[in-house]
Design goal:
The protein has 187 residues and is of the alpha/beta class. The chain has helices at 18-29, 58-69, 86-95, 122-134, 163-183; strands at residues 4-10, 34-38, 72-77, 108-114, 138-139, 145-147.
Length: 187
Amino acid sequence: MSQKKVAVIVGSLRKGAYTRLMAHAVKGLAPASLTLTEVEIGDLPLYNHDLETDQPPAAWTRFRQQIIASDAILFVTPEYNRSMPGAVKNALDVGSRPWGHSAWSGKPAGVISMTPGALGAMAANHHLRQVMMAVNLATMPYPEAYIPAAAALFDEQGALSNADTRKFLTGFLADFDLWVTRNLPLR
């Protein structure tokens, strides 16, 4: 398989979020063999098993179908209170149900975490990885991507302007491409 479809999950729901800017930036830095497409999570109703009927919420169905149609997943997340945003956890829950029909199962995945602070959202990255393991995502262990000082990375138009971060992410995405290739589930 030469062209791999990667679903990009942006953790912040804010229109001008640094994670959203980063998701746009990585599209341009990714190897030609990866096609990155953002999958919206902001419209997903909170997971409630009572809604898991023959007609689940339309947003759940759309989301699950987009994840199933993807070859791999890339999370770009901020850190909220030393963890991942609730919207990301909800997306993981929605995609993992109904029981026995997880949209995530066996897919290769990666995480980029970022924050305006100095630690690069390391706690969010690790909490997210813990849940990714529970839903059977094959998460790339290395290199890890903790991006600090998010406010200083983008120009006035929202383009990634920090050369060192561009270089690091270009390498990260090349490694992610290799990880995806090695870990694609058999169909």
